[in-house]
């Protein structure tokens, strides 16, 4: 039987696996990536790169290589009630540069750029049409894997196996790591439509068990996603397409002309949703990343981004493990420790969004819309939500008190205090400017300071 030796074997060439291969290849570590697909993905699903994902690609030298004619930078996202009423607007321009925008790419553009970069690495190899069969163990640790390639089965001897093979990970199963795999009752129909009018900002509509989102892509193309019951895509395709576009028009009337450009089911695709929670991410000689460890609902807008961050975090730990010839679970646990809390927070947040955004309960919907209205007025809470969605905040966006404030049940004392302090500062500045101007002129030309302002003036002089 053919045998191959490498330092790291990665099962799965998706977002996390490909990024890890590139990061390790750039460090000169021998890496093999195995994927059962015939080649890089060719599906309809586009990519929304959040700021943390952009930072990863920038560190790897990939962000600047993305073709300009296949990407679109977006700053503003508007959340609206079904029918058209605006609830809240989020502006990525409020984030610190240079990643103060979201980037929408044409299908698989970023992923193909990563794969191309992997192919240029001297110490990295990517093999499609190669399936994982089983793990090989030596003295209770993983020491390799059996795979099935185009020319038959062969053995890969390695010091570390990384499972990046998705929510239904076979590597995770072979490691006997318990997993809670939850399939949500809702999925999404996705589409790419051509707009006759330029659309520069994103829109997200929520209603009675309705979600419809629109992201402008390159040129006049627009990505659209629409919530449907899980497993209903094929049944939906048996119906008259006009029923669907009429529903969309009722939700977002301003885009009626865009929806009329849907004329073939080949313009659409189906995206199921699920969540994975595992008891551990590492074992002796093995680790899990991305959806294999922690799939999450797309409401978090962070699934693929978190897989990329997993890869970068693990890539920082692996070189020392290899140098010390120690890829034990205790040594690899530093990766899990660094990542788990952030990921768990995002999973909880996504599930909360599922409860409120997907709801058919009018009371819950009323509360959801009330929170959106509060966010539109409250810059502090809005920034906390934005920085979480962008992947820049590692703690939950709302404390218990913030939740009460967002529901409109309490005033935001933090904002009021800040506003009061800002007003007092401006008053002090005006008074100091008046005093300075007065001192520079003859005494007789100065107007007396009003009695109500003297306390502030005295404080300023003492300071």
Give an account of the 3D structure.
Helix content is 39%, strand content 26%. It is an alpha+beta fold and 463 residues long. Among the domains are: 3-73 and 105-181 and 275-348, FAD/NAD(P)-binding domain, CATH 3.50.50; 360-409, no CATH class; 414-462. The strands form four sheets. Strands 1, 2, 8, 9, 10, 11, 19 and 20 form an eight-stranded mixed beta sheet that branches. Strands 6-5-14-15-16-13-17 form a seven-stranded mixed beta sheet. A hairpin with a 2-residue loop joins strand 10 and strand 11 (152-163). The radius of gyration is 27 Å and the shape is globular. Mean pLDDT is 91; it is low at 449-463.
Task: Itemize the secondary structure elements and their pairings.
Blueprint: E1 3-11, H1 15-26, E2 31-34, E3 47-49, H2 51-59, E4 71-74, E5 76-81, E6 86-91, E7 102-105, H3 109-119, E8 124-127, E9 131-138, E10 141-149, E11 152-163, H4 170-174, E12 179-183, E13 186-194, E14 202-207, E15 210-216, E16 221-229, H5 233-237, H6 241-251, H7 256-259, E17 268-271, E18 274-278, E19 282-283, E20 286-288, H8 291-294, H9 303-323, H10 329-357, H11 362-377, H12 379-389, H13 400-406, H14 413-439, H15 454-462
Parallel strand pairs: 1-2, 1-11, 2-8, 5-14, 11-20
Antiparallel strand pairs: 3-7, 4-7, 5-6, 9-10, 10-11, 12-18, 13-16, 13-17, 14-15, 15-16, 19-20
């Amino acid at each position: 039987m053919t045998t191959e030796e490498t330092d790291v074997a990665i099962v799965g060439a998706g977002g996390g696996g490909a990024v890890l291969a590139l990061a390790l290849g750039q460090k000169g570590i021998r890496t093999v990536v195995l994927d059962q697909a015939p080649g890089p993905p060719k599906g309809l699903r586009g990519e929304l790169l959040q700021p943390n994902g952009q930072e990863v690609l920038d560190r790897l030298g990939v962000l600047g290589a993305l073709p300009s004619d296949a990407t679109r930078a977006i700053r503003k996202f508007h959340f609206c009630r079904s029918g058209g009423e605006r609830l809240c607007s989020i502006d990525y321009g409020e984030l610190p540069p240079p990643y103060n925008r979201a980037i929408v790419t044409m299908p698989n553009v970023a992923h193909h750029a990563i794969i191309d970069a992997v192919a240029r690495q001297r110490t990295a190899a990517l093999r499609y049409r190669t399936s994982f069969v089983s793990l090989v163990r030596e003295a209770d640790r993983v020491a390799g894997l059996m795979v099935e390639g185009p020319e038959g089965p062969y053995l890969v001897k390695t010091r570390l196996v990384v499972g990046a093979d998705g929510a239904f990970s076979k590597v995770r199963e072979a490691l006997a790591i318990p997993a809670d795999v939850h399939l949500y009752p809702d999925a999404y129909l996705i589409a790419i439509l051509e707009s006759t009018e330029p659309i520069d900002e994103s829109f997200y509509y929520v209603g009675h068990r309705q979600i419809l989102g629109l992201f402008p892509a390159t040129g006049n193309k627009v990505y659209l996603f629409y919530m449907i019951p899980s497993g209903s895509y094929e049944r939906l395709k048996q119906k008259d397409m006009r029923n669907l576009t009429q529903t969309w028009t009722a939700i977002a009337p301003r885009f009626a002309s865009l929806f009329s450009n849907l004329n073939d089911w080949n313009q659409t695709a189906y995206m199921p949703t699920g969540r994975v929670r595992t008891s551990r991410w590492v074992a002796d000689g093995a680790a899990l990343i991305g959806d294999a460890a922690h799939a999450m609902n797309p409401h978090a807008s962070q699934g693929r981004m978190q897989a990329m961050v997993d890869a970068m975090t693990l890539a920082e730990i692996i070189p020392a493990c290899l140098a010390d010839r120690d890829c034990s679970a205790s040594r690899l646990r530093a990766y899990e420790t660094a990542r788990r809390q952030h990921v768990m927070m995002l999973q909880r947040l996504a599930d909360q969004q599922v409860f409120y955004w997907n709801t058919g309960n009018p009371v819950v919907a009323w509360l959801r819309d009330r929170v959106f209205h509060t966010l539109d007025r409250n810059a502090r809470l809005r920034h906390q939500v934005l920085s979480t969605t962008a992947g820049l905040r590692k703690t939950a966006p709302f404390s218990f008190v913030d939740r009460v404030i967002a529901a409109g049940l309490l005033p935001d004392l933090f904002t009021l205090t800040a506003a009061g302090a800002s007003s007092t500062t401006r008053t002090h500045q005006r008074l100091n400017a008046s005093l300075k101007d007065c001192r520079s002129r003859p005494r007789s030309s100065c107007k007396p300071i009003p009695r109500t302002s003297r306390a502030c003036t005295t404080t300023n002089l003492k300071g």
